[in-house]
Write a structure and sequence with these properties.
single chain; alpha+beta; Jelly Rolls; FAD/NAD(P)-binding domain; 3 domains; six-stranded antiparallel sheet; five-stranded parallel sheet; 14 helices; about 30% strand
Length: about 600
């Protein structure tokens, strides 16, 4: 087989669709062109959604129009030759009973007859029939038909009418796509850093900024296009917990400017860590993929800090972890259940409504009211009230009994249905009250709830927090409350119970912030070494920021003493305290512009 690339020209290349022409060795030359939807030069009204990449295999474009048609996504594609091609489109019918996410493909201003997003139960390659390509460079568009979350991963044009793309998002599909995209088997090096921080929430920002101000060269890898995690504009959760030191700076909306202002931070927005290289019990490097271009790079360092919120770097490295709830008897926790189970906090979609100047309509959505049923309450749990008659911001949660990784897209989509169905029912049942009401925003990125908790040398418990225990290796000072959520019954997208128990100031020992079996892995945020109950307090974003500061400082001491995080805990804890309390030689080390190295 002979491969030849056909890349768009000029500096627009990174924004145009990636494609590879493959010429077979048979008597008939067959051309193949893979167009990744995330690589379209103009996304139009479609949004880039990379959050389920590990499960379904790729970022994709989402027509998130809240019931209104979105503008076409547009790009240019170069074909090796004119002629007939079979088109395959990888898509998902996200509600198979009604097909709300339908769309079509336009090639060189000709709308193809096939409709996509209306077949199957999962992500599939849908046959789009044949298309005549009359010239080598053509415009390709995605046309939304519903405004309700149609999704397109990729388009594949082939002159081989018998070929069917790989079905499952496994290594076979990954290798096939890598070949078509011309990606090397071993990603090129992004460089060697003093520390690699993965995850750009409040914890990650705090860890990166702390390490940088202590003089370390930091690779800061975030798989979204913005920083802040659950506090970002994409999600919109209010930050809570202990706010002091560097955390105050990154808790503000100006966190990206604060981060970029530090010359020691090398920020990689839109890069998803998907693989770790191990040597013995250590991480040698982590591979990350750009979610818009599919380019891959390898990040190497002596120390890694997992701030993903899901413990994904630890998982890739084989770190030990827990999920679900411990039994009351294991740690004698009053708020724990009698028996251990897999229940966990769910994911949350934030949405808001507003009043338009004139009456607005909303489509019938029987596929959504199948989930929302007769629920029509647009009040309840809110953060602000626009007009006291329905203009509100809401938080709805789901997925407590599902797998937070494998079922993540299903969890998000279930909440979409609940929101659309409730809104439609409210409009129908109260036409005068809600005549002008419209959906202002429905977040397509859910706030992550609870997932893995990576195990360290110590597991923090409810009783540790209730007692305000001060550990000799205390590394983070935290505050807040136990916040335990339980799913509802009839309306499973609304909480059935909520325990909100204030706690005194408490500390988290460093032993909870490094992996017990991956010797150069630190962790900060909600996936540290805690029980389910204790994690309901440490998960507060500002508390996560405090653990981020502690891990950034620990990474500095690992570098300074050529040691592991465990060594810092056992031999250099006094020096760590001097940094965290900004005392002695470290009095000014965490201030803006500082660098002790």
């Amino acid at each position: 087989m002979v491969n030849a690339h056909a890349w768009p020209q000029s500096n627009r290349m990174q924004h145009l669709a990636f494609l590879l022409i493959t010429l077979t060795s048979s008597s008939t030359l067959a051309a193949e062109v893979l167009v990744e939807a995330e690589g379209f030069s103009d996304h139009g009204g479609w949004v880039l959604d990379p959050q389920f990449l590990d499960v379904m295999g790729s970022p994709y474009l989402l027509a998130h129009g809240l019931g209104k048609l979105v503008n076409n996504a547009v790009t240019e594609v170069e074909f090796p030759e004119i002629g007939k091609y079979r088109l395959w489109v990888r898509t998902k019918d996200w509600v198979p009973s009604h097909h709300p996410g339908r769309f079509r493909v336009i090639v060189n201003n000709l709308e193809l007859p096939a409709t996509f997003g209306n077949q199957g139960q999962a992500w599939i390659w849908q046959d789009g029939g044949t298309v005549e390509v009359g010239k080598k460079r053509v415009k390709v568009e995605l046309k939304d038909l519903t405004g309700f979350d149609g999704r397109c991963d990729a388009l594949f044009f082939t002159a081989d009418m018998e070929f069917v793309p790989p079905k499952d998002p496994d290594e076979k599909m990954a290798a096939w796509r890598r070949r078509l995209l011309g990606l090397p088997e071993i990603p090129p090096s992004a460089g060697r850093f003093d520390v690699v921080v993965v995850g750009g929430g409040i914890a990650g920002c705090s860890a990166a900024l702390t390490a940088a101000r202590l003089g370390l060269q930091v690779a800061f890898v975030q798989n979204r296009s913005v920083l802040g995690g659950n506090a970002s504009p994409e999600v919109g959760i209010t930050v809570r917990g202990q706010n002091r030191s560097i955390v105050s700076e990154v808790a503000s909306p100006d966190r990206e400017n604060v981060t970029r202002a530090d010359k020691n931070i090398h920020l990689y927005l839109g890069w998803h860590a998907f693989r770790a290289q191990m040597k013995g019990g250590r991480i040698e490097s982590v591979d990350a993929k750009n979610t818009a271009t599919n380019k891959e790079q390898r990040f190497a360092a002596p120390v890694f800090i997992d701030c993903t919120g899901t413990g994904s770097v630890g998982f890739l490295a084989g770190a030990e972890y827990r999920m679900g709830r411990e039994a009351k008897s294991e740690f004698n926790e009053n708020l724990a259940p009698e028996s251990a189970d897999k229940l966990h906090h769910g994911n949350t979609v934030v949405f808001s409504t507003r009043r338009a100047e004139r009456p607005t309509s909303f489509p019938d959505v029987p596929w959504a009211t199948a989930v929302s049923m007769d629920y029509a309450d647009l009040g309840g749990q809110v953060t602000h009230d626009h007009d006291n008659e329905g203009g509100l911001t809401h938080f709805w949660e789901y997925g407590q009994r599902l797998d937070p990784f494998q079922d993540a897209e299903e969890i998000r989509d279930h909440l979409f249905q609940a929101i659309y169905g409730t809104f439609a029912t409210a409009k129908r049942m109260h036409p005068e009250k809600f005549a002008n009401l419209e959906l202002e925003r429905v977040g397509h990125v859910p706030a992550g709830g609870e997932s893995r908790r990576l195990l360290g040398d110590y597991v923090l418990t409810e009783n540790d927090i209730r007692s305000g225990k001060v550990f000799p290796d205390a590394a983070a000072l935290c505050s807040g409350h136990f916040c335990l959520h339980y799913p509802g019954d009839k309306y499973d997208f609304r909480l059935g119970d909520w325990k909100f128990v204030p706690v005194p100031l408490f500390t988290v020992p460093l032993r909870c912030l490094y992996s017990k079996n991956v010797e150069n892995l630190l962790m900060a945020g909600k996936h540290i070494s805690v029980t389910h109950v204790a994690g309901s307090a440490t998960k507060m974003m500002l508390n996560g920021g405090q653990t981020g500061v502690a891990t950034g400082a620990t990474a500095f001491l690992c570098r300074k003493h050529q040691s592991t995080p465990r060594d810092v805990d056992q031999r250099h804890i006094k020096e760590l305290h001097e940094i965290l309390l900004e005392q002695g030689p470290y009095k000014d080390s965490l201030k803006p512009g500082s660098a002790t190295r």
